[in-house]
Specification:
The complex is a heterodimer. Chain A is an all-alpha fold. Among the domains of chain A are: about 180 residues, Serine Threonine Protein Phosphatase 5, Tetratricopeptide repeat, CATH 1.25.40; about 80 residues, Serine Threonine Protein Phosphatase 5, Tetratricopeptide repeat, CATH 1.25.40; about 130 residues; about 130 residues. Chain A is about 60% helix and about 0% strand. Chain A is built from 36 helices and no strands. In chain A, helix 18 packs across helix 20 and helix 20 packs across helix 21. Chain A starts with 7 loop residues before the first helix and ends with a helix. By secondary structure, chain B is α+β, with helices and mostly antiparallel strands. Chain B has a domain of about 80 residues: RRM (RNA recognition motif) domain (Alpha-Beta Plaits, 2-Layer Sandwich), CATH 3.30.70. Chain B is globular and about 50 Å long. The chains are: A mainly alpha, B alpha+beta. Chain A: One of its GO terms (molecular function) is RNA cap binding.
């Protein structure tokens, strides 16, 4: 075990570590012996502003009750200026002294488990409390292991993998108190399960998840257990190698960058593949595991030299856990994971390289912290800004060292820049494929919050991240580009739309088909949606002003094309608008529409419904231009006619989409919303929208560069996918009556087929563009309308679209496909057999909700 | 479920809770506090948020653009001046699910829209009439007596309007 840490001053002391010189605020002066709340003369270290934003201390002249003290101390562990080892021992002594207070004891264990499953950065520290407690009152350790173990067993049974991993980590940190091989025996059993899963299904993802957990547990077990277990770890690593090195078919779809491109920011690494390599390397260099905080086993003894302690602390057999068979894959669909980093492969190493184990260990803890505490972004931001507190001394350089001074200041030591690691981790979550763990807006607000907590330290890192992404945006996965766009515009809207656009001005010369130019155009549109045109223009350098047309400045509604007498059917169009405004009768409106039909027939138009639909929908848009509520009520009133149109003719159906888009061409955001409303009213079918996009709008493929086109298709596909998932969860229920089974399955089969057709259609079309086989594309190439460069860009867009929608299709297949649904039903049946009592109870209550399947397991 | 290790941002505000307490107090004459759980239950399943501190100029489209980041919006009701029928700086956003409403509390409450920090609060559900300001001059009460100038919310408080004119 490592020796005591020295150089505390450097660690959390008075130094300016980037919290914008607010560090003195954080300095904890509570000596944790109860004196903290006593008033005292000369106790001015605290200062008037002390930790105002943290839990305020109770009023003075008031002894903090033990129940509150144990919570505060455990929750705030390691975040003070104290030496971790001293703090940890003090907490152990404190609970020993208050162990006979029932409520304090209960609170202690509740909070202990809470910290383990909610604040992963603190696990080594709370585990150390329990480790030292074993030497002063072994009852505490026994009870802690029981409490954490119970929760672990539940998590294992329910397939709550993240929670399982963290609870297991707690045990790994206690490795020295276990007899024999301790945790390694259990890790071996887990691996046997992986082998079973893999031999049953070579594309199994639960096994992958388990291997990840095993690999992430090993370093913690070795950091605490020491040299004695090196051989065990090696053996385990030898066996995980095959699984970790295996590539699943799904992995082909989750590359954040085009792997063939030289300009990618990072190549593809699977998380477990990387872990395996890093651990193997670490094994060769003697398991230094330098970033994990370590504690001196003899620290308590050194503190009590009189020998009042028992000779040898108690040791225990590792608790027995049951691994259920079949393994419950858990409530969330599992996918292989890619390791993403913006900074890892950059020249100046501010974050661990992908070869270093620290990259995986620290990333894992940051990511879990962010995921678990999504209910309080303020606290997450504080934890992240204090990241260096939770790792061993010298893992990180001082906070907030500017990038250009970083190398010079760190010298040849291996030290990381905590701000870069935080930003890197958040972006890895924002860019997680196939699906992020939380709504993307969580990551948006978390970044905003970090910028607020430590602007001087975080903002420059963020700026470098943005530039790094922008530089390679043309080879990034298109869905990720879209996520970046959405984040970027939202982020700027929280910071007065400040961005140094000037540095991108030279890209304005590029063709609108170029991904960089397309990004700039799209970003401005998104900014305007959250603000207004004039305001956004005022934030731009003059060179960019032409990108925001002057006509957007006026608060007027877009022009109504029928006001121009040149427009065919101008009179009728205007009449329709008046009639709609006056809520004219169905017959009156029909009369006008019939007039259009007559004229159209005279003009030799085959489907007369197309021009009349155009006039009708455009009039609705015009009348509803004032606000979304207005257009909603207009649609509501015209709903019957719209439904009729949609049922009568395919081209008229598509004309509905066309008219909306045409009317709102300068503000595609509004058009996208209206399309969404029409989909909800089932006036439009998803396939209609998609067909309009590809057949009537995209043409030779240039429109694939327009961000809102992607948005429309993406939203439409998401609607279809969500619905299918809902149907599946309606199916996966205990005790669904047979007639309902039949009904649900009927719906599922039909909608699943619909989704497959839609995906197939999108895939075929964009594949044609990507491969240059699209007729219109070939035509425009031959007649010189498109230059060779433009044609190349269009094909590249096709390729990027193709990647996204092939992935979407594969993901949906893996969640709602027959195979997956059958597997879920089998598991449901197995659970019902295994827990007949729980079933009876459920039936007795008359509750049979879809979620209950998982809850029962808890 | 044991308590979380840190506070949650998706709890009803003290305003919503004090409203509940006021309500309970009024009923105290007739019945015990514990017997009026409807309000609690309503918030537990609430899909609606009250959104405050908007600029009078913020549009439905802007609100949609931001709030749909937390889920599909079922209904958006703009708060209006009782007399002018113009936006007066608040709205109700209704989602399809309670979870979306909670996420909105966590991820959007306290962030900016139209360059103002907005406030979100779980709401018991919109009812006709609640879209109108309850201040004397038709807007929200807070805009009657504000003595600092807020260009996004009609300048100075309306009660002082004469003095400043």
């Amino acid at each position: 075990m490592d020796t005591r840490l020295d150089g505390i001053d450097d660690r959390r002391g008075g130094g300016d570590r980037g919290r914008n010189r607010g560090n003195n605020k954080r300095r904890r002066d509570d000596d944790d012996d109860g004196q903290h709340y006593r008033p005292g003369p000369g106790d001015d270290r605290r200062g008037p502003q002390r930790r105002r934003r943290d839990n305020p201390p109770p009023p003075r002249r008031y002894e903090e009750p033990a129940v509150a003290a144990v919570r505060r101390r455990l929750v705030k562990i390691a975040s003070s200026t104290k030496l971790p080892e001293d703090e940890v021992i003090e907490i152990a002594e404190y609970i020993r002294d208050h162990y006979d207070e029932e409520d304090a004891q209960k609170e202690f264990f509740d909070v202990l488990v809470g910290v383990v499953v909610e604040q992963p950065l603190k696990i080594p520290f709370v585990a150390a409390v329990i480790f030292y407690a074993n030497q002063i009152n072994a009852d505490i350790t026994v009870e802690a292991m029981k409490r954490v173990g119970d929760r672990l067993q539940k998590a294992l049974k329910a397939g709550q993998w993240k929670e399982f991993k963290l609870l297991l980590r707690f045990f790994a940190c206690l490795q020295p108190v276990f007899e024999d091989d301790g945790i390694f025996t259990f890790l071996g059993q887990l691996f046997d399960t992986v082998v079973d899963l893999q031999s049953a299904n070579e594309n199994d993802v639960v096994g992958i998840e388990l291997v990840k957990i095993i690999l992430l547990t090993i370093p913690y077990a070795l950091a605490s257990g020491g040299r004695r277990f090196h051989e065990k770890a090696r053996e385990l690593l030898d066996s995980t190698g095959i699984v970790a090195g295996n590539t699943l078919p799904m992995e082909a779809y989750i590359h954040p960058y085009d792997s063939e491109s030289e300009e990618k920011v990072i190549g593809y690494h699977s998380v477990i593949g990387l872990l395996q390599q890093q651990l193997t390397a670490e094994a060769q260099s003697g398991w230094e595991l330098s970033c994990i905080p370590k504690f001196d086993v003899d620290a308590v003894r050194k503190k009590n030299p009189e020998g009042t302690l028992p000779e040898a602390p108690a040791t225990y057999p590792f608790p027995t856990f049951t691994i259920p068979s079949p393994v419950n894959p858990g409530p969330k669909p599992l996918f292989p994971e890619a390791y993403f980093s913006l900074f890892a492969d950059q020249e100046f190493g501010t974050v661990p390289r992908t070869t270093e184990i620290a990259s995986s260990i620290i990333r894992d803890a940051i990511v879990d912290t962010i995921e678990l505490l999504d209910y309080n972004r303020d606290e997450v931001a504080k934890l992240l800004v204090d990241l260096d507190c939770y790792w061993s001394l010298h893992t990180f350089a001082k906070r907030g060292i500017p990038f250009d001074k970083f190398r010079e200041s760190v010298g040849d030591k291996v030290m990381y820049k905590s701000e870069d690691m935080v930003i890197d981790a958040i972006f890895s979550m924002l860019f997680k494929l196939p699906t992020p763990e939380h709504k993307l807006v969580y990551f948006h607000c978390l970044i905003t919050q970090c910028c607020k907590v430590a602007p001087a330290a975080i903002a420059p890192s963020l700026g470098r991240a943005i530039r790094t992404i922008y530089k390679s945006i043309h080879v990034m996965d298109l869905e990720l580009t879209y996520r970046f766009l959405d984040w970027f515009s939202h982020h700027l809207s929280n910071f007065e739309f400040r961005w140094r656009w000037a540095e991108w001005v030279e890209d304005l010369q590029l063709s609108n088909l170029h991904p960089k130019k397309a990004f700039i155009i799209a970003a401005l549109d998104k900014e305007i949606r959250l603000s207004f045109a004039k305001r956004i223009r005022s934030t731009l350098p003059e060179d960019m002003h032409p990108l925001i047309p002057k006509r957007l400045d006026e608060d007027n509604s877009p022009d109504f094309k029928y006001e121009n007498p040149e427009t065919p059917y101008a009179t009728e169009g205007q009449t329709l608008l008046v009639q709609l405004r006056k809520k004219a009768s169905h017959d009156d409106i029909q009369q006008t529409i019939d007039q259009i039909h007559d004229q159209a027939a005279e003009r030799g138009i085959t489907d007369v419904l197309v021009p009349s639909t155009d006039a009708f929908v455009t009039a609705i848009c015009r009348l509803g231009a004032k606000s979304l509520s207005h257009v909603l009520s207009c649609i509501e009133r015209g709903k019957e006619r719209l439904l009729n149109i949609a049922q009568t003719s395919e081209s008229a159906r598509r004309q509905i989409v066309a008219s909306v888009i045409e009317y709102w061409k300068d503000q595609p955001g509004v058009a996208v919303r209206i399309i969404d409303i029409l989909l909800n009213y089932t006036v439009l079918a998803p396939i209609t929208v998609v067909q309009w996009v590809f057949e009537d709008y995209v043409g030779a493929g240039g429109a694939l560069a327009e961000s809102w086109v992607f948005e429309v298709v993406f939203n439409t596909v998401a609607k279809v996918s969500n619905r299918n998932r809902q149907i599946v969860s309606a199916r996966i229920q205990q005790g669904l009556p047979p007639e309902q089974v039949e009904m649900v399955e009927g719906t599922l089969n039909r909608d699943r087929r619909g989704a497959r057709e839609m995906f197939g259609y999108i895939e075929d079309t964009v594949r044609g563009i990507a491969g240059g086989a699209n007729d219109r594309l070939i035509e425009n190439e031959t007649n010189g309308e498109l230059s060779a460069e433009e044609s190349r860009l269009i094909r590249a867009w096709g390729k990027r679209w193709l990647t996204v929608f092939i992935r979407k299709a594969a993901v949906e297949e893996s969640v709602v496909g027959e195979e997956s649904v059958e597997a879920k039903l089998r598991l449901l049946a197995a659970q019902a057999d295994a827990e007949p009592e729980a079933m009876q109870l459920q039936e007795a209550n008359g509750v049979a909700k879809a979620e209950n399947g998982d809850e029962d397991m808890l | 479920m044991p308590r979380n290790t840190i506070d949650r941002l998706d709890k009803p505000s003290t305003y919503a809770m004090s409203k509940k307490r006021r309500r309970n107090r009024n009923r105290d004459d007739e019945q015990q506090r514990d017997q009026t759980p409807e309000f609690d239950d309503k918030l537990k399943e609430s899909t609606t948020l009250y959104v405050g501190n908007l600029s009078f100029y913020t549009t439905e489209e802007q609100i949609h653009e931001l709030f749909s980041k937390c889920g599909e919006i079922k209904r958006l009701v703009m708060g209006l001046d009782r007399f002018q029928k113009t936006p007066c700086g608040f709205c109700f956003v209704e989602y399809y699910t309670h979870q979306d409403a909670l996420d909105c509390m966590k991820y959007i409450g306290g962030t900016k829209l139209d360059e103002r920090v907005i406030r979100t609060d779980l709401d018991e559900g919109f009812e006709e009439g609640r879209q109108y300001g309850r201040g004397r001059s038709g807007g929200q009460v807070r805009d009657e007596y504000r003595d600092e100038f807020d260009p996004g919310r009609g300048g100075f408080g309306r009660a002082y309007a004469d003095e400043y004119d």
